[in-house]
């Protein structure tokens, strides 16, 4: 209850700051909340809303799932083999350090316009997150337990399922929240310049036509959907999986 009150306090602070800025800047720069609310209503009622929602979501979810697979698999292999870690580490640092707009330009040169650049930008942002979290998880496993399992000749599949997998899953779900929020932002940024459908091009088009209230309406919509993903899907799923894995690890 206390955390929820502070959450509401943060939202109230944002709204209060918005009203203050409205008194300082003209509506062409910062429109009032009522104007944005009406524009948001029109955006949701627009006949293209569901198509834009579908286009953005499948790019975000697709990038997330592929990043989870690639980053986790490479992280497991690199955590088990130091030579592979030494090889992949600078690659992941490069992917993580380069700004999303750089990957966007490269993706446009390689694949042209469309959904592919959004996927590439999403992968470049999220794969390193899953990779480094998985490497840390593998290196943090109980070595005594692994050595004991090897001494008792526990099969490789059973060893992986009972020792490696729980620790890796906990690391992956912990990285899911941060990676999804990053993907959500960079994919919408990328699709604004490369796609015909989605929230990105709609937001960019409203800016080009100087429709400030529509711009802010899409920003509010994107933030609300991000909140829905985080607090309605990712966090409950992460908490459930962490609880389940800890129960299975500690026993009834």
UniProtKB/TrEMBL annotation:
Its main location: membrane. Residues 53-233 form the ABC transmembrane type-1 domain. The keyword Membrane applies. InterPro entries: MetI-like, MetI-like_sf. Keywords: Cell membrane, Membrane, Transmembrane, Transmembrane helix, Transport. The chain crosses the membrane at residues 57-80, 92-113, 119-138, 159-184, 215-234. Gene3D superfamilies: MetI-like. It is a multi-pass membrane protein. It is found in: Cell membrane. CDD domains: TM_PBP2 (cd06261). It holds the Pfam family BPD_transp_1. The keyword Membrane applies. Belongs to the binding-protein-dependent transport system permease family. This is ABC transporter permease subunit. It comes from Prosthecochloris ethylica. The lineage of its organism: Bacteria, Pseudomonadati, Chlorobiota, Chlorobiia, Chlorobiales.
